[in-house]
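Notebook, bench 3.
Goal today: get a predicted structure for Tryptophan--tRNA ligase from Streptomyces cavernicola so we can plan the truncation constructs. The sequence was checked against the plasmid map this morning, with no discrepancies at the termini. Length recorded as 332 residues. Pasting the sequence as submitted so the record is complete.
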Amino acid sequence: RPRVLSGIQPTAGSFHLGNYLGAVRQWVSLQETHDAYYMVVDLHAITVPQDPAELRANTRLAAAQLLAAGLDPERCTLFVQSHVPEHAQLAWVMNCLTGFGEASRMTQFKDKSAKQGADRASVGLFTYPILQVADILLYQANEVPVGEDQRQHIELTRDLAERFNGRFGETFTVPAPHILKETAKIYDLQDPTIKMSKSASTPKGLINLLDEPKATAKKVKSAVTDTDTEIRFDREAKPGVSNLLSIYSTLTGAGIPELEQKYVGKGYGALKTDLAEVMVEFVTPFRERTQEYLDDPETLDSILAKGAEKARSVAAETLAATYEKVGFVPAK
Ligand code: AQP
């Protein structure tokens, strides 16, 4: 089986619809066909300041949401990044292989550090993509299921894997991004030209999966569309309507042309009312399942412990091979 690896930050509490449709949904289906490794990336989370108690709670909350979304610990390896020390160890080797200029070109760092102020951004935030490189290469992943915003980091991973292999001999699998066109980028409901994100979206434009279902329905009903009335998929001319159609189509499995057909002659109100209902049907059981996992922390922690053990056995092997290639004397 080909291998996949991906991660999600535990920082925002609730996952948002972009996280789910862009990434987590693919994780669930890939566990059926791939040897799948998924993690809650708490090392990445501390690249910006975190409250320790909140970070701990949000890490368990993220794991609970992944299970609620359909990850099955019998079918995939689910773990917490900091439980596998090899991530930080391989990241150091990768840091030493990356050019300063190369790292400086990462657009996510530019965006995020601009928001924080360059002097306040941490060196960790700067090297974040390189830790991500280590995350992926440790598992010899063939594919990385992510949203479009991560494409540049997967490119960097490919470059560094090739560079290391070229310099020290074949060591790492060169991974490919697994990005589905329809859900690569879910847009803000109030400004459908920007990505739905926890940092850039306004509260009304961001669907948090753990919000009250009624609040979610309200956000869908007040989504920005346009002054026209035609329900047609056209990213350029009708970004708001197109975003709603993508979300609707992915959550229900109905094709976009089928939906366009269904709403001929009906207004945006009908589309939004129906989509609000679809969203409520999706988030209601999701919230309940998440709560069930949170109510049983022992089971949750033991799933994560087993996942970490399995992840470590793979990660340790890759790290040992890397250290050997680099020229470190093996510890006796
Ligand atoms: N709007 C989106 N559309 C499609 N995919 C998305 N992802 C995030 N936003 C969208 C994908 O979700 C996965 C996890 O991303 P993350 O760990 O970076 O989660 P986040 O920090 O909650 O994402 P944000 O909201 O995008 O964070 P900020 O605001 O900090 O930039 C990834 O695969 C990502 O592509």
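Residues 8-9, 12, 16, 18-19, 22-23, 146-147, 149-150, 185-186, 195-200 surround adenosine-5'-tetraphosphate (CB under 6 Å). The two ends are 34 Å apart (CA to CA).
Flagging this for group meeting.
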